[in-house]
Design goal:
- The chain has about 325 residues and is α/β, with parallel strands linked by helices.
- It has helices spanning about 10-30, 45, 60-75, 90-100, 115-125, 140-155, 175-190, 220-230, 240-245, 270-275, 295-315; strands at about 1-5, 35-40, 55, 80-85, 100-105, 160-165, 195-200, 215, 235, 250-255, 285-290.
- The chain has a 6-stranded parallel β-sheet, sandwiched between helices. The chain has a 5-stranded parallel β-sheet with strand order 3-2-1-4-5, sandwiched between helices.
- Helix 4 (about 90-100) links the parallel strand 4 and strand 5.
- Mean pLDDT is about 85; it is low at about 260-265.
């Protein structure tokens, strides 16, 4: 069975969602040959053992258009059994029309439904009944070495630090330097003395100098994953870090706002925002309209301090 999956954006979190789909296709169809056409960052996918062929598109610029035409020409010569289009954009709808396959499955985001349910639905329609919907992250040696050097240099061990990710791809989902400073100060006042690691690949918080606070500045997503895996608790804005934490079964608090992301409608309630995992005892969510900076520091600190110490007692 020849399977083609096409993603015309570079959303990292959604790429982590997809790992379960590739794994389950290979697990249930021994003859499956998986081709993935992906735009932008493919670091998460290229280390997976389930993908047989990559077709890579630049994330922007005139080269993207040229590569897209070349990719279409290459794909047109092949006959796929299954086509899964993974991006709800006009480009993806055009690709879906032009590409040939016996069965086509457009991926549709449904507000309030964990995204993995959409992949499970496609697998079910392909006749799969025993579905493992967990995510798979394969971290290569170079990424682990980068993470290990950082952790050793800061004298951090597994489970003894809080991971704080304040950075997103858009301003409404990014915490300000002032907000981050206030959160850390209030956490210290509530008795959270453990080290705090800030993910800061954009160097937005380099002026923040506080005892027991360390910045990890690598932009290698899998090195970030390797550091995340060692955290005792994760506080993050809505980015791929929440997906990583879920993949590693880490407790977390995720900060949301109602501002729409590209290709998605504006959320009408908190339930509409959750796509990486259903809320649970280990997945806490806070939100405010307009910006994550509108979420009160007191609310964030109250949830994090309580959950972090509950985690420590259970370890």
């Amino acid at each position: 069975m020849k399977v083609l999956l096409v993603r015309t954006d570079s959303q990292l979190g959604d790429t982590i969602f997809e790992t379960c789909f590739y794994r389950e296709i290979k697990r249930h169809f021994s003859d499956a040959h998986i081709t993935v056409m992906v735009c932008g960052n493919r670091r998460v996918l290229e280390n997976l053992p389930y993908i047989d062929e990559f077709i890579w598109l630049p994330s922007r610029g005139i080269k993207r258009l040229l590569y897209a035409f070349l990719a279409l020409a290459h794909i047109w010569q092949q006959h796929f059994d299954v086509l899964v289009s993974l991006t709800p954009t006009w480009r993806m709808r055009l690709f879906n029309k032009l590409l040939r396959a016996k069965r086509k499955f457009p991926f549709e985001y449904r507000l309030g439904v964990p995204a993995v349910e959409n992949y499970k639905n496609i697998l079910t329609r392909l006749g799969v009944t025993d579905i493992d919907s967990s995510y798979t992250l394969v971290i290569p040696l170079d990424a682990r070495q980068t993470a290990d050097e950082f952790l050793a240099g800061c004298r951090l061990t597994r489970g003894n630090f809080l991971l704080l990710n304040p950075v997103a791809s858009c301003d409404s989902y990014t915490l300000s330097l002032q907000k981050v400073t206030q959160i850390i100060e209030q956490l210290r006042l509530t008795g959270v003395t453990e080290p705090i690691v800030i993910l800061d690949y954009q160097n937005k918080y380099k002026s923040l100098q506080m005892p027991g606070v360390f910045r990890f500045t690598s932009n290698d997503v899998l090195a970030v994953a390797a550091v995340t895996e060692h955290a005792g608790y994760v506080l993050t804005v809505d980015t791929a870090i929440s997906h990583m934490a879920y993949a590693f079964s880490l407790p977390m608090t995720v900060l949301f706002t109602d501002q729409p992301k590209v290709g998605l409608p504006r959320a009408k309630s908190l339930e509409h925002l959750i796509s990486f995992a259903p809320p649970s005892e280990d997945v806490q969510v806070l939100w405010a309209p307009g910006s994550v900076n509108a979420i009160s520091v007191q609310d964030i600190v109250a949830v994090v301090s309580k959950r972090f110490y509950r985690r420590k007692k259970s370890v």
